[in-house]
Amino acid sequence: MSPIDEFRQQTRAWLEENCPASQRRPVVKEEQIWAGRDRVFATPDAKLWFERMRDKGWTAPSWPTEYGGGGLSRDEEKVLEQEMARLHCRPPLYDLGLWMLGPALLVHGNEAQKQEHISKIVRGDIRWAQGYSEPAAGSDLASLKTRAEDMGDHFLVNGTKIWTTQADKADWIFALVRTDASGTKHEGISFILIDMRTAGVSTTPIELISGESEFCQTFFDDVKVPKENIVGGLNNGWAVAKELLKHERKLMATMESIIQREDESLVELATQYIGMDESGKLNDSSIRSRITDQLMTAEALEYLNERLFFQHRSKQVDPGLPLTVKYLGTNAMQQKDELLLQILGNHGLSWQEQSHTPREHNIVQNWAYNKAHTIAGGTSEIQLNIIAKRALGLPA
Amino acid sequence: MVLNEEQRLLQSSIRDFLNQRAPVSALRELRDNPTPQGFDTSLWRELVDLGVSSIVLSEAHGGFGFGWMGLGAVMEEIGRHLAVTPIFSSVVIGAALIEAADDHHSTEILPEIVAGTRTLAFACDEGLRFNPGATATLLNQGVLQGEKSFVLNGSGATDFLVLARTATDTKGTDGLSLILIPRDATGVTVDTIHSVDGHNFARVKFDQVAVDHRQFVGAPDHAWDFVSGVLDRATLALAAEMLGGARELLERTLAYLNDREQFDVKIGSFQALQHRCAQLFCQLELAQSVVYKGLSAIDQGQQDVAKLASHAKVLAIDCYQKMSNEAVQMHGGMGITDEVDIGLFLKRSRVCNQILGDSSFHRERFATLCGY
User: Fold this and answer.
1) Which of A386, A388, A320 is nearest to B266 (CA)?
2) What is the ipTM of this complex?
């Protein structure tokens, strides 16, 4: 047996033994295991599952073992993903630090920063928020104005960040701040880590069209930050930000599998709400045709991701491919949401939780919430700009 | 789902060869001065010498082990150059059908196909579009009667592989047989049709053609059992050809946008055009991923690629059609002239749409295979 097959066999056996049955169903929002100082588990099984995965380093399977990661190769990580998918295992940990900051820190952080932060991310001890956008700096992110002033032994941060996901629940925030205003706007930006408990940090949740408040506005008023909290060097924040954005885009495109929506089968839902004729075809030919569009796009995206995996492995990555994944993946998710809503008919219209089944309520809420995905992490239009210039070589 | 070293070398050698020997101007030459065979026989001779006539066959039958990913790479180049050759009808379908039937024809005629001395044409479509379940051509008591409406390489083939109904009282794809009919058999009439894309096909009439049992390819009445799998694989190869054409169009259009100036700037700097190009690129890479998935599934020994074949054909149709329309539009007035090649790709895409099933056919099939 080849080493990778052996690894698969061991992984399968370990998961079967260690993943509690209750953690093998699609996860509902309330039961997601979010990192943090005040981490809570919805059930004892969730706690057990998290701890077992954490102790193997499999909350961050491919990160180096010296920082508590799993140390798996790319192929082994893929096998773990496949085996987890086979058993429908829930993700053992949810955190922006895990998805975005960690990978960037492994590239740009110094040894002390890696020692300090990476293992806490792997262990789910800290919940991270992201401070990028500002009220006046969205797509034009580099025009950001939040300042970090050098006070000799510390930086003094002043300004505000917006769309900071769950900042009201976060322990730390990674943020882009201006440390030099003299050069071009991309110069003079630094990437800084701030403890949310520091005096002068405050957050206000923003009510969204989905009825939730996932995002906050975060304010910094004379916040003192140690100088060693700059990552990647002073005025070099844009390079770190770009590294991190790669992971954010990947995350946005694969959000669906992370969220593990319970309503995942369009065909099943359509069969239930629309019905089939005696020949086994859905009763609504237009919806049937749109389901074909949707399935063809969704399955093709899986193949695109698979192809990208093989390109990474053979070290021949087409520069445009990672960008297409974000653009296409977020669009496809929204198309699916629209289709789900249409399938529900007037059951997709009520805004009162008690007049819906939980599944119906989820579909409506997700439909509204997922409008964020073509905006966050660089709008679809920004993705197209970058593809046109970087992958297609069109002039600026 | 990526080409290996040998497959990449194969692709670049075929590309170099076609750049030299069969650029798009060769299609114009053939369109304006047609040959009786419908293709350039010396070009085909040279391609045979390069080994393409055995590419889908097992190594026992002269294949080189390039696999279907390797074939896909060759088909992409065919699509990029709009090269007119019998590779699709005679090799990808014809030779593969003979090999899949696995009977006396394998030893009798496969070597001649590989040598390029015999070329085959698959005679299937009867009405306006591909629908093998509606086959009405009938072989009854040793006599074949019927008419085939869209036979690729019909003018150049030495033999036809005819899909015919042999079991009366059957419907759909049950009761079909595959029959080898020499072109010069009594009762065979071939009408060459010059098609919109500068290629050609034939209408072939079989009138009281005598058939003996040695002409059956594979088991009588159950041909669909092996024909369908061969056609699925051929559909994936066709999709690869189509995406080769689409990719060539994208590259030519980008070059034009980087060259043409209006309002004192390159028109490629306009965001309206940049976004459309970027969307076309995304659509192309998405379709390409399905084609690679299908071709590599065959190489990994997956027996049933029906769903992947239909999936790939639909996305390839949508992609090539959209790409060709946009390429014409972005080339402005030049796009609608015959002087520029863009229109030739536009026309080719619409012909490819009809080969082995159009979008409606494959969407319906995909839905049925998915169970809704």
Assistant:
1) A388
2) 0.95
